[in-house]
Amino acid sequence: MTDAVVIICTFPDQDSATRCADALVEAGLAACAQVQGPIRSTFRWQGTVDHATEWYCQVKTSRSRYPAAEQHIRAHHPYEVPEIIALPVIAGNPAYLRWVEASVTE
Predict the structure, then answer these.
(1) Using CA atoms, how far apart are residues 77 and 93, in angstroms rounded to an integer?
(2) Helix/strand/coil for 14
(3) pTM for this structure?
(4) For the domain that residue 57 is a member of, what is the CATH number?
(5) Which residues sit opposite 40 in a β-bridge?
(6) Helix (H) or strand (E) holding 34
(7) Number of domain units in the chain
């Protein structure tokens, strides 16, 4: 197990996903972030099945920076209940994982 985590979140459009990715990296809350899309999401919301075209943002950070990154995403996200999920990185290229850790600042 490493200290690295990958945060997954979705956004309603490319601009809001890109703004969030840029802000997280600029603030030292993430080593990097990728924006992909569009994707098609199917979900249950307020009792009905719904669909949306969304943009996917994958953020690499450390476990210790996750709370601040989550707070930043919540504060700037357009959704009432944004998807923010952190997944542990159990293994990876040691040099890359060192870079992730060194790139996020306290």
Answers:
(1) 31
(2) helix
(3) 0.93
(4) 3.30.70.120
(5) 53
(6) strand 32-45
(7) 1
Cα–Cα distance, 58 to 9 (Å, whole number): 7
Contact call for residues 76 and 9 (beta carbons, < 8 A)? no
99 strand-pairing partners: none
Low-confidence ranges of the chain (pLDDT < 50): none
Supply the DSSP string of 62-94, one letter for each residue.
Answer: EGGGHHHHHHHHHHH-SSSS---EEEE-----H
Closest among 91, 62, 85, 55 to 73, alpha carbons compared: 85
Closest CA to 100 of 61, 57, 51: 61
Residues spanned by the domain of 16: 4-103
